[in-house]
User: Which sequence fits this backbone?
C-alpha cells in the first residue's frame, strides 16, 4: 500500500476554514450554551435558567408571541405571494418583469426601514392616520401584532412569490389540460391540480419566511409596542441597565435557536422533496382575461407590489422634507442630509468600510469554500457544509450575544473594536458567497482544471488561471448579495457597537427610537441607494432573473 | 518516451472494485490501448496513471521509478479528454501555450513551439480564435496539440474521438497515429470502440469489470482471444456453451461428433468459431471439422459481405459471413446449406473460468 492523494493546497484551505468556523461560530455558541447552564453569581452548573424560561409567564408570553408573529408573517406572506404568483404566471398581466423587479427590491431593502416607514404612516402621529382622523375615521394604531405581521407579510412575500412562480412556470401544462379534459372547471383545476403540484415550493418559501420572521429583531423592536418576542427579550436581558442577566439571555437564545433549527430542518426536508416537476417541456401560455377581470387582476398585482415597496418610497420622500429642529415643516429640502453629514458622518464611513472589508473576506473565503464543497467531497468537507448551515439557524441577536461573551477576554479581546463587527458580518454572510460560488462551479466542467494540472500547473495555479476566471460572474453576484445583507445588518451590530463603531442601521434604529425621523430617513435613503445599485449590478452581471436574489 | 509498469493496482469506490488488481507493462514509445465495455474501469485506470485518482493498492512506475506519491502536476503526462476540456476563456494559441507558460519557457521558444504544433494539427490559421468558434473536431485537435506541445513522457487519451461523427473519427484517428509515430510518445489510449482499438494500437489491453483479460497485439487478440469475454467482445463469435466432453476428448455440436485434442482429460468445454470461419458448401479438404446441414433463416446482403443466420436440424443456431458474395446468388430463407466448422478454426474455453483452452490458429 502506498500513500494516497497527496495533501495539496485544498486540504490546507479546508483545514483553515474549519478552524475559522470553529473560532467564529462553534466557540461563541458553545459559550452561549455554557452561560445558559451557569448560575450568574456563583458560576455553578444549573438548569435554573431553563426552568425559569420554560415556566415563568414572562418568557412563556415571549415564546408565544414569537410563534404568533412567525406564523402570522408566514401566513401573510403566503396569502400575498401565492395569489400574486398565480396571477402573474397564469394570466396575461402586463409589466410582469417590472413586478418581479419590485418584489426583488422589496426583498433586499432592510426590514427595519419597512417598520419605521409604517410608523410614519400609521404610527401615533402618522400622516396617513392623521389624514384619516381629519375626515373622522379612526384607524387602529400600528403598534403591536398588527404592525409586526403587516411589516413581515409585505417584506417577506417576495420569497413565496418568487419561489412559487418559478415552480408554476415549470409545471407541465398537459397535466392541467388533462384536468380540463376530465371536466374540471377553472377553480377546481387550480385547487386540485395546480396548487398541489407547487405545494413543495410554497411550503419551502413559507417556512423560510417563518424562520426570518422569528429571527428578526428590528421590526418587533420598532413597531412591537408592548409585544415582546424572544429576540427582543434576549436583547433586553443582556443589555439591561441593571447589568444584564447573561444566564437568562443565553437560555432565551438557546430556545430561539431550537425553534429556528426545528423549522430550518423542516424546510430543508421539504426543499429536498422538491424538483418533482423540473423536467419542463413547454411553458403554459398565460390566459387572457375579460376586461373587468383583467382590471381587477392588474389592480391586485400592482397594489401588492406598491404596498411592499411603499416603505421605501415613504422613506425617500421623508428624507427630502424640510425640517426645523426635530420637526417637519412644509416644503422640501436637504436639511436632513446636511444634518447627518454634520452630526454623524462617521456612521456612513463605518458602514461602508465594515461591509466592504467583510465582503472582501467573504468573497475570498466563500469562493474557496464553494470550490471545496462542489469539487472535493470528503468527510471533512461534509462537516464544513453542515457548519455553514449554522448562520442560517442562528438569529443575529443570538450570535451578537455569543460574540460578546466569547470575545471579551484574552486571547481574543475584541469588545468595542471594528474587528468584531467585521468578523460578525463575515461569518453571518459567508453562506451567500459559498452558495453562489458552488452554483456557478456546477456549470464549469471539472476536466478543464485537470487538463491544466496535467499540463504542469499546480492545483492552486490551475484554480487561479483556469477555474477562477470562469467563476467571476458567480463570485460577483455572491459578493453583491453578501454586501447587500452586510450593509443592512442591524441586530448583531446593535449588540456589538460602541460609539466609535456605530453603523448606519444602528444609527437609524436609535434615531427612530428618539423620534428623529428626518435623520433616519436620510440615512435609510443612502442605504436604499447602495442596495439598489448593488441589486442592479447583480441582475446585470448574472444575467439571471430576480429569483437569483431569493 | 517512457516505460510504464503497473503492478497489482486496486481502486475501490465503496464496494465497487473499479480496478481489481491490474498489472500491465507498456513499452517505451508504444501505442497502447485500453479496450472494454462501459464501466469496466478504463477511465479509472487512466486517471490513476495521471494522478487524479488515489489508488488503494499496488504501484505505478515510470521508467522504473514509483510515481504513486508524485502529485499529478509533476507527472509530466499529457491528457486528452473525451469532452476536449479546452479552456473556454483562452484562444487556441493560449490554450496550446498553457503548459509551456507554466514551465516558464522563454517567450520566443513558446511562440515557436506553439506555431509548430498548430501547423502539425493543421490549426495554424485558427490560432487566435476562441474555442466557442471551433467545431468539435477542431477542438479535439487543440486538445491534442496542447497535450503534445509539452513533450510529455506519456500521452493519455480518454475516448478522444467518441464525440465526433464517424467520418471525422476515422480521419482523426489516422492523424493521431501518425503524429504519435513521428514523435514516438508512449501513448495510452482509451476506447470502447473495438475497431478503433484494433486499427491504431501496437498492443491492446482488453478489460472487463476492473480486470485485465488479455494484453496482446490486435491480430493476436482477434485470432487467439484469451477469454470467453474477449472472444465475444472483440469481433463476433458463435459460441456453443458448456458442452460435455467424453474421455477421448469428443464434443458434439448439432448432433455431429468431433475429437478436439486440446480437450483431452476435460469434462466440459465451450466451443466457439467466428462467423467468417464457417465454410458454406465449400469443397471438403478432408481436414478434421464439424460438418452438418443447416437451413438458412435470414440472409442479409451488405455489399462487401453476406451475413447469414442458419439453424441445424436440432435447432442449433449459427451465424456465418462470407466476403465478396455473388450478388446474383444470394441464398433465400428456407434454402439448405452444408456448414463446415474446421477444427483449426475452433476456439475452446473452460466454461467455469472462461479461460482459453486452445485450438485454432
Ligand atoms: N467517482 C466515482 N464514484 C463511485 N464510483 C465510480 C466513480 N468513478 C467510477 N466509478 C465506478 O467505477 C467503475 C469504473 O468506471 P470507469 O469510469 O473507469 O469506467 P469506464 O471503463 O471508463 O467506462 P466508460 O466507457 O463508460 O467511460 C464503474 O462501475 C463506475 O460506476
Ligand atoms: Mg470512461
Assistant:
Amino acid at each position: 500500500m502506498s500513500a494516497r492523494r497527496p495533501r495539496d493546497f485544498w486540504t490546507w484551505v479546508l483545514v483553515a476554514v474549519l478552524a475559522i468556523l470553529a473560532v467564529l461560530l462553534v466557540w461563541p455558541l458553545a459559550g452561549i450554551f455554557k452561560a445558559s447552564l451557569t448560575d450568574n453569581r456563583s458560576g455553578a452548573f444549573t438548569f435554573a435558567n431553563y426552568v425559569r424560561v420554560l415556566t415563568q409567564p414572562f418568557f412563556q408570553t415571549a415564546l408565544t408571541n414569537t410563534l404568533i408573529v412567525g406564523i402570522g408573517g408566514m401566513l401573510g406572506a403566503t396569502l400575498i405571494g401565492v395569489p400574486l404568483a398565480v396571477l402573474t404566471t397564469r394570466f396575461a398581466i402586463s409589466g410582469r418583469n417590472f413586478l418581479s423587479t419590485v418584489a426583488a427590491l422589496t426583498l433586499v431593502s432592510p426590514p427595519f426601514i419597512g417598520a419605521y416607514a409604517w410608523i410614519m404612516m400609521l404610527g401615533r402621529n402618522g400622516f396617513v392616520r392623521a389624514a384619516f382622523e381629519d375626515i373622522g375615521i379612526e384607524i387602529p394604531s400600528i403598534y403591536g401584532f398588527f404592525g409586526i405581521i403587516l411589516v413581515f407579510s409585505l417584506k417577506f412575500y417576495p420569497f413565496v412569490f418568487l419561489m412559487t412562480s418559478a415552480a408554476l412556470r415549470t409545471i407541465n401544462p398537459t397535466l392541467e389540460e388533462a384536468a380540463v379534459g376530465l371536466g374540471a372547471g377553472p377553480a377546481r383545476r387550480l385547487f386540485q391540480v395546480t396548487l398541489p403540484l407547487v405545494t413543495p415550493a410554497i411550503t419551502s418559501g413559507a417556512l423560510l419566511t417563518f424562520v426570518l420572521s422569528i429571527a428578526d429583531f428590528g421590526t418587533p423592536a420598532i413597531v412591537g409596542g408592548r409585544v415582546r418576542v424572544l429576540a427582543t427579550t434576549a436583547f433586553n436581558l443582556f443589555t439591561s441597565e441593571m447589568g444584564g442577566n447573561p444566564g437568562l439571555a443565553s437560555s432565551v437564545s438557546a430556545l430561539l435557536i431550537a425553534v429556528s433549527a426545528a423549522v430550518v430542518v423542516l424546510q430543508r426536508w421539504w426543499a429536498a422533496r422538491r424538483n418533482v416537476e423540473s423536467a419542463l417541456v413547454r411553458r403554459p401560455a398565460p390566459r387572457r382575461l375579460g376586461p373587468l377581470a383583467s382590471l381587477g387582476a392588474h389592480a391586485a398585482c400592482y397594489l401588492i407590489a406598491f404596498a411592499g415597496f411603499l416603505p421605501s418610497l415613504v422613506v425617500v420622500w421623508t428624507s427630502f422634507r424640510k425640517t426645523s429642529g426635530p420637526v417637519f415643516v412644509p416644503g422640501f429640502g436637504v436639511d436632513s442630509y446636511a444634518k447627518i453629514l454634520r452630526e454623524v458622518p462617521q456612521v456612513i464611513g463605518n458602514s461602508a468600510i465594515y461591509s466592504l472589508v467583510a465582503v472582501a473576506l467573504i468573497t475570498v473565503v466563500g469562493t474557496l469554500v464553494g470550490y471545496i464543497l462542489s469539487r472535493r467531497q470528503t468527510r471533512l468537507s461534509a462537516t464544513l457544509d453542515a457548519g455553514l448551515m449554522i448562520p442560517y439557524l442562528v438569529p443575529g441577536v443570538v450570535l451578537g450575544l455569543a460574540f460578546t461573551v466569547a470575545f471579551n477576554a484574552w486571547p481574543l479581546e475584541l469588545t468595542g473594536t471594528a474587528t468584531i463587527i467585521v468578523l460578525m458580518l463575515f461569518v453571518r454572510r459567508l453562506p451567500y458567497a459559498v452558495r453562489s460560488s458552488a452554483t456557478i462551479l456546477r456549470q464549469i466542467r471539472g476536466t478543464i482544471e485537470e487538463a491544466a494540472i496535467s499540463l504542469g500547473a499546480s492545483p492552486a495555479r490551475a484554480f487561479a488561471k483556469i477555474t477562477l476566471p470562469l467563476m467571476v460572474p458567480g463570485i460577483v453576484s455572491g459578493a453583491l448579495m453578501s454586501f447587500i445583507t452586510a450593509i443592512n445588518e442591524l441586530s448583531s451590530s446593535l449588540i456589538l457597537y460602541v460609539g466609535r463603531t456605530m453603523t448606519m442601521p444602528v444609527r437609524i434604529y436609535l434615531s427612530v427610537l428618539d423620534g428623529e425621523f428626518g435623520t433616519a430617513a436620510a440615512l435609510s435613503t443612502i442605504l436604499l441607494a447602495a442596495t439598489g445599485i448593488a441589486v442592479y449590478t447583480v441582475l446585470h452581471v448574472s444575467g439571471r432573473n430576480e429569483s437569483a436574489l431569493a | 518516451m517512457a516505460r510504464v509498469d503497473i503492478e497489482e493496482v486496486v481502486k475501490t469506490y465503496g464496494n465497487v472494485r473499479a480496478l481489481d488488481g491490474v498489472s500491465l507493462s507498456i513499452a517505451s514509445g508504444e501505442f497502447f490501448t485500453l479496450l472494454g465495455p462501459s464501466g469496466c474501469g478504463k477511465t479509472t485506470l487512466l486517471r490513476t496513471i495521471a494522478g487524479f485518482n488515489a489508488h488503494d493498492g499496488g504501484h505505478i512506475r515510470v521508467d522504473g521509478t514509483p510515481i504513486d506519491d508524485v502529485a499529478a502536476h509533476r507527472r509530466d503526462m499529457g491528457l486528452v479528454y473525451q469532452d476536449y476540456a479546452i479552456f473556454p476563456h483562452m484562444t487556441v494559441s493560449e490554450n496550446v501555450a498553457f503548459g509551456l507558460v507554466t514551465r516558464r519557457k522563454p517567450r520566443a521558444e513558446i511562440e515557436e513551439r506553439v506555431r509548430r504544433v498548430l501547423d502539425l494539427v493543421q490549426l495554424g490559421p485558427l490560432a487566435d480564435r476562441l474555442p466557442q468558434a471551433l467545431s468539435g473536431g477542431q477542438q479535439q485537435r487543440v486538445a491534442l496539440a496542447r497535450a503534445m506541445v509539452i513533450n510529455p513522457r506519456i500521452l493519455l487519451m480518454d475516448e478522444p474521438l467518441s464525440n465526433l461523427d464517424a467520418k471525422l473519427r476515422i480521419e482523426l484517428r489516422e492523424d493521431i497515429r501518425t503524429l504519435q509515430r513521428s514523435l514516438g510518445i508512449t501513448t495510452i489510449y482509451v476506447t470502447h470502440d473495438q475497431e478503433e482499438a484494433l486499427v491504431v494500437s501496437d498492443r491492446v489491453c482488453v478489460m472487463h469489470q476492473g480486470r485485465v483479460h488479455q494484453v496482446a497485439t490486435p491480430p493476436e487478440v482477434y485470432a487467439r482471444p484469451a477469454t470467453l469475454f474477449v472472444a465475444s467482445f472483440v469481433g463476433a463469435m458463435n459460441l456453443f456453451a458448456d458442452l460435455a466432453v467424453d474421455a477421448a476428448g469428443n464434443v458434439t455440436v448439432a448432433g455431429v461428433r468431433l475429437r478436439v485434442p486440446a480437450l483431452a482429460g476435460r469434462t466440459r468445454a465451450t466451443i466457439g468459431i467466428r462467423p467468417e470461419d464457417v465454410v458454406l458448401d465449400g469443397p471438403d479438404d478432408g481436414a478434421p471439422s464439424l460438418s452438418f446441414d443447416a437451413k438458412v433463416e435470414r440472409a442479409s446482403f451488405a455489399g462487401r459481405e453476406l451475413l447469414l443466420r442458419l439453424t441445424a436440424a436440432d435447432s442449433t443456431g449459427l451465424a456465418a459471413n462470407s466476403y465478396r458474395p455473388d450478388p446474383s446468388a444470394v441464398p433465400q430463407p428456407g434454402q439448405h446449406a452444408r456448414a463446415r466448422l474446421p477444427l483449426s478454426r475452433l476456439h475452446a474455453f473452460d466454461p467455469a473460468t472462461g479461460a482459453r483452452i486452445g485450438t485454432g490458429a
Q: What stands out?
A: The pocket of adenosine-5'-triphosphate (ligand 1) is lined by residues B 13, 16, 18, 36, 38-44, 192 (CB under 6 Å). The CA atoms of residues 290 and 300 of chain B lie 24 Å apart. The first strand of chain B starts at residue 4 and ends at 13. The mean pLDDT of chain B is 89.
